[in-house]
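Entry 14. Structure prediction run on the chain below.
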Amino acid sequence: QVQLVESGGGLVQAGGSLRLSCAASGRTFSSYTMGWFRQAPGKEREFVAAISWSGGSTYYADSVKGRFTISRDNAKNTMYLQMNSLKPEDTAVYYCAAPVYNSNYNYWRADTYDVWGQGTQVTVSS
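Output returned:
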């Protein structure tokens, strides 16, 4: 059983930065691709970024490319999302996730991830 816990959310002004963390416990963290998703009120959950098990490959939504950086430290069982140049439209609950039981996943599809954290709120004021 893998458990994921996000932290680092908060209120920030437009143009500011935040760093989210996702701490994993349970089964071998380093075995899995990991992803960040977000969900704003009244909207569907959307892909933000993903990182391969080794950290050697990273993927970003066009809306965050060049502003957000995903990384992971397998020795610490932790994944990060560095968010710079934040915009009001980045306001959402941010979730980390892993396709622990589903080997036939697509990194950009939320419905192919089967383990999720509880989410952390990010609010960007204008």
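The chain is about 0% helix and 45% strand.
Filed with the rest of this week's runs.
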